[in-house]
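input
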Amino acid sequence: MAGYLIRETFFRPGEIAAKQRTSIPAAVFNGLQLLLKRSQGDCVFVPIRSMQYQAVVDREEVIFVDSHGGYAHQNGEGGRLIRIAWRPAVAQASLSAPIPCEIIHYFKGQEEIQMRLLGEIQPTIRQMLDRQRHGSGPRQSARILPFRRTD
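output
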């Protein structure tokens, strides 16, 4: 499994609402950072199967895309549309303190989805960390492009 590259393209639409400031649990942030550190690529794809969403974790943010919808084409390139992004604070006060985070919504009505993502991602992180101990996976890379809405 190791040795090959999985590369996906994602489009970032314009922000719908003002950025929301909140915090995410330290366990979620620490788990995401550990997944990223152990990865062979510049990001980690985290499938949240219970919601049919995928998180893409890199050093600056976590983006969320709907696995079943939101595919777009622009300038001959196809990719999925980012629905929500988390931008955690860079510095961490302690390993157990919640992490200040900016939440960005790219579509209307995502508040309930955001709350579900926060609850559903933690078991997925634990499962992926357990699997990583038993072997490495493919290198993963994400390309994020701006997207101009035509509606």
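quick obs: The mean pLDDT is 85.
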